[in-house]
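This section describes the prediction task in plain terms. A model, or a person checking by hand, is given the sequence of a single protein chain and must write out its three-dimensional structure as a string of tokens. No templates, partner chains or ligands are provided. The sample shown here is typical of the held-out split.
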Amino acid sequence: MIGPLGTANHEIREAERRDRERRRARLTEPRRLTDQLLGRLEELNLDGVPIVPGSYDPGLAEIRSHLVGWPGIGTRLLQRLHSGTRTAELIETVFTIQEVIAPSVLPAGAVIFEEPDLV
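The expected answer:
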């Protein structure tokens, strides 16, 4: 049988686990949503739809709600997430947001593309 101290320790560990999961979700959800949006926007672009339709507003609002207060994401950038925008422009905005929320991390001096040695 678990005593009061064991129960308290278990409750503390559970609270810490839930907190870690909440923080992880806060970090991953905007990336998941922006990836999903990019897929839909690219389909619009391929279909020749020049302007993002109003049906995208609920998804755009959800993304905005996740990004309010995010370091590096200003109000102006969030205001660009709306329907009625040129499709290509909204795609660029979403790419910009992704660069802020999930930047590529390369070690200093890393070479992205290497030329093969010619012998």
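For orientation: The helical segments are 4-46, 57-67, 75-79, 87-101.
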